[in-house]
Amino acid sequence: MISRRLVLLGGGTAALSACVGGNGIGSNGSAQIDARVNATRDYLFQRYPGTQDLAARSAGVLYMPLVTEAGFGFGGSYGRGALRIRDVTVDYYSSTKASFGLQIGAQQYAHALFFTTDAALAEFRRSPGWAAGADIRYATPEMGQSLGKETTELDPVVALVFGQQGLIAGASVAGVKYTRIIP
């Protein structure tokens, strides 16, 4: 029984490693991340026009163009992206998440964090490892058409998860840790 669990755990780890391998590790670094961020931003603005106005009103936006998540009992996710202020990349970040529970499958998705206040952005940038928590407001892609001024006045961080593909139901940034990296 123990050896079967180890085989399953090892297989799950190998599957996650394979998914993460296509996620930019050992790649061209910042140029590849910037290209992916540009494509993600363009897709987001075209598909959900309200996000362009939200980005313009925000102090900064963290774009995570590709997050890979896999789990079989134990799970995890990993992605890399860029923080942009006035649409200029200022830092690169990785996102990681570990989980345990009733889960099986894999998925990929993109997300963007809109820092709607200077204070929220400053707190994020000062932190050696910022963890997404309850202070984030989740916007659904359908809301991307109508994210109004009241959203940015009430919520210091707005998260939008979009482009999901895979076999795990639901994606969120709750419990995700963001760490500044040098690609």
How do the helices and strands line up, and which of them pair or pack?
Elements: H1 2-21, H2 30-47, H3 50-57, E1 60-85, E2 88-115, H4 118-126, E3 130-131, E4 136-139, H5 149-154, E5 157-166, E6 177-181
Parallel strand pairs: 4-5
Antiparallel strand pairs: 1-2, 2-5, 2-6, 3-6
Describe the structure.
The protein is of the alpha+beta class. The chain has one domain. The protein has 5 helices and 6 strands. It has helices at residues 2-21, 30-47, 50-57, 118-126, 149-154, and strands at residues 60-85, 88-115, 130-131, 136-139, 157-166, 177-181. Strands 1, 2, 3, 4, 5 and 6 form a 6-stranded mixed beta sheet that branches.
Summary of the model, kept short:
The chain is α+β, with helices and mostly antiparallel strands. The chain has five helices and six strands; from the N terminus they run H-H-H-E-E-H-E-E-H-E-E. The protein has helices at 2-21, 30-47, 50-57, 118-126, 149-154, and strands at 60-85, 88-115, 130-131, 136-139, 157-166, 177-181.
Structural key phrases:
183 residues, alpha+beta, 6-stranded mixed sheet, 5 helices, globular
Which whole number gives the mean pLDDT?
78
Based on DSSP secondary structure assignment, what is the total number of beta strands? 6
Largest sheet: 6 strands, mixed
SSE class: alpha+beta
Strand content: 35-45%
Helix content: 25-40%
- Report the end-to-end length measured between terminal Cα atoms: 41 Å
| Shape, per Cα inertia axes | globular
Poorly predicted sequence stretches spanning 5 or more consecutive residues: 1-25, 144-152
Rg estimate, integer Å: 17 Å
